[in-house]
Write a structure and sequence with these properties.
heterodimer; A: 190 residues; mainly alpha; B: 195 residues; two-stranded antiparallel ribbon; 2 strands; globular
């Protein structure tokens, strides 16, 4: 039950994109087509869950015992950067079709603040290993939900007659604002 | 390049937020008040100037293949410096900005300038570029913070201007998206007028 609550709260109540403002760059950048949004979601889910697991282990078995918690930011970003490279190499070898699908998104993920953000949040919230993993999965689903629904809306938006100065990014932000407003309706259900 | 042009491009022509759409997470996340926006902007400016300086100093020593990880380590070092200094001297601001301080590491503006400018230019012009882009980013965050604070709590830099209730929505997450959306429309109008 506890784990279901973590997932529901990560997906709906404090949605990583619409409520915590993490991963806004891919949210605006790769959301013009539903297909690319799905690809990006897959890549982010993959990296986010593995990165949270690995950074959790490193934090609690290296940084805390050695009392060098202030090295957290440097360690985490290095772990994520090398992990992304590793995932890229492994995927290329064992699953070329998946690599083809996710390939172009993988390098972008290093600088996706959602991945680093979730890893940092998981250690800040003092979650245990299983809770951290569930937390990462929930946030990845939340990211996917926001990104894919938003890209669906943006595809429709292209067909509308939007005032000239609002075309493109400005109207995307206003739509995102309305989506965030809708997500606020979930506040307080847990 | 003319130093003044190099410095001033970050404010209007190549403004990180309004023109290049970089560094949007902190832009939306911390701008619940003008003070927070200003603080976040200055912290980012410090990291930007220092990392530009170091990257342009060591650009010839770093092999091309590992330059991105090397840049990230340099940036992360200065982010840790900012984290410790802010925790020690401005704990209230540190708490308000929260998660977004360590996330300066993944701010695309910082890595973008290191890769696109500092790794190809002299130390002096990299410093000027970092300061210009950083202060332009600070300006954008402060403007957005001021607009949201004014609409959402009727205050300006913490001074209450309007008594009674304001539009709380603008302090909440949806207000961040809406305010930035309309500011971008305004930026487009200014761009049209000037060109």
């Amino acid at each position: 039950m506890e784990y279901i609550l973590i997932i529901i709260s990560a997906v709906f109540i404090s949605n990583i994109v619409l409520n915590q403002f993490l991963g806004i760059c891919p949210f605006i950048g790769v959301s013009s087509k539903v297909e690319t949004a799905i690809g990006m979601t897959g890549a982010v889910t993959f990296v986010m869950v593995i990165a949270t697991l690995v950074t959790y282990l490193i934090y609690h078995s290296v940084l805390v015992p050695l009392d060098i918690v202030y090295m957290r930011t440097i360690t985490f970003i290095l772990v994520i950067a090398s992990l992304v490279q590793l995932v890229e190499i492994i995927l290329k070898k064992i699953s070329p079709p998946l690599y083809q699908a996710l390939g172009i998104f993988l390098p972008l993920i290093t600088t996706n603040c959602a991945v680093l953000g979730v890893a940092v949040l998981a250690v800040q919230k003092d979650l245990n290993l299983l809770e951290s993993t569930v937390f990462a999965i929930g946030n990845a689903i939340g990211f996917g939900l926001a990104l894919i629904t938003f890209s669906g809306i943006r595809e429709q938006l292209d067909l509308l007659n939007v005032p000239k100065r609002m075309k493109g990014v400005p109207i995307a932000f206003i739509v995102a604002g309305l989506m965030a407003l809708a997500f606020m309706g979930f506040a307080g259900i847990v | 390049m003319n130093p003044w042009k190099n410095f001033s491009k970050g404010f209007i022509k190549e403004n990180a937020v309004f023109v290049l759409f970089l560094g949007l997470c902190p832009t939306l996340g911390v701008t619940t008040s003008a003070t927070n926006g200003l603080g976040m902007g200055l912290a980012t400016t410090f990291v930007l100037v220092m990392s530009n300086l170091v990257v342009s100093l060591v650009k010839n020593l770093i092999p091309d293949k590992v330059r991105i990880p090397a840049f990230i380590v340099i940036i992360a070092t200065f982010v840790t410096v900012v984290e410790l200094v802010m925790k020690g001297y401005v704990p209230a601001l540190f708490d308000a900005l929260g998660l977004f301080i360590p996330l300066i590491v993944v701010n695309c503006v910082v890595l973008g300038r290191a890769e696109a400018f500092a790794s190809k230019n002299t130390i002096w012009s990299s410093l000027v570029d970092g300061a210009g882009m950083g202060l332009g980013f600070t300006m954008a965050l402060t403007v957005l913070g001021a607009v949201r604070e004014l609409l959402g709590s009727g205050a300006f830099f913490g001074m209450k201007l309007i008594s009674g209730d304001a539009m709380l929505l603008f302090i909440l997450p949806p207000g961040a998206f809406l305010a930035l959306g309309y500011l971008l429309v305004l930026a487009n109008m200014i761009k049209e007028k000037t060109s």
